[in-house]
Amino acid sequence: MAFQDKALDGCTALVTGGSRGIGRAVCVALAARGAKVAINFRSREDAALETAELVEKAGGSAVLAGFDIGDSEAATEGVGAIGKEHGLHVLVNNAGIAINGLVMRFKPADWEQVIGVNLTGSFTCSKAAVRYLLKAKEKGRIINLSSVVGESGNPGQAAYSAAKAGILGMTKSMAKEFAGRGVTVNAITPGFIATDMTDEHLPEDQREALLKSIPLGRMGEPSAVADAAAFLAGPEASYITGEVLRVNGGLLM
Predict the structure, then answer these.
(1) 160 carries an active-site annotation
(2) Hey, where are the domains in the chain?
(3) Is 246 helix (H, G, I), strand (E, B) or coil?
(4) Would you say 224 and 180 are in contact if contact means Cβ atoms under 8 Å apart?
(5) Which CATH architecture has domain 12-246?
(6) 3-state SS of 122-140?
(7) Considering 41, 160, 192, 231, which one is annotated as catalytic?
(8) Tens digits of pLDDT across the chain (253 residues)
């Protein structure tokens, strides 16, 4: 099947954490395929508005969806509101946080926050969305953003790695649950992508060492992850479910 540029015409996609970084790039990529994009954000409405402008320029339409996915009640209500008003065909669970630290010094509250936002938040949004995705049948998609460290682990990131690994198990289980209705569930594991989060958590000396370990010799751009998500959201990926798509420059093979 040839790649269909406007294959998501008439579809609504919700992207959590869509105001910046990878989330913003995903919003734009889905808009370029014709989708109406609900841009989720927690506090940066100004950034979400910037994303909305980019979505419109790419050929889609934008809706702002302000709620905290780490708050289960707010997330359930927020996803439900989008589904009721606009329908829902594609959910991209992208929002996440990283709190790093050695295990011996890691605070229980930080563990709970990292797991709560990254893993529980993705589960809550998926649970709230699935009633609408099942109605979408073969157009229904859940795309979960995990991480290369969810497969490989990383010193100082036990909580983040655990949350991202959990997303992979959740992806495969949901894929088996929803396959009978034509809804696919897949995950993407980005490597080190040039975003604000990466800049915040990757000191310059570690960055240089990291680049030497990446076969392609460079960090990835958010658009590389976004293109993978746009593919998984479209009809070309209708027979792909329960899979983990690595976008990491060869860092983990």
Answers:
(1) yes
(2) 12-246
(3) strand
(4) no
(5) 3-Layer(aba) Sandwich (3.40)
(6) HHHHHHHHHHHHHHHHHHC
(7) 160
(8) 456 789 999 999 999 999 999 999 999 999 999 999 999 999 899 999 999 999 999 999 999 999 999 999 999 999 999 999 999 999 999 999 999 999 999 999 999 999 999 999 999 999 999 999 999 999 999 999 999 999 999 999 999 999 999 999 999 999 999 999 999 999 999 999 988 777 776 777 777 888 899 999 999 999 999 999 999 999 999 999 999 999 999 999 9
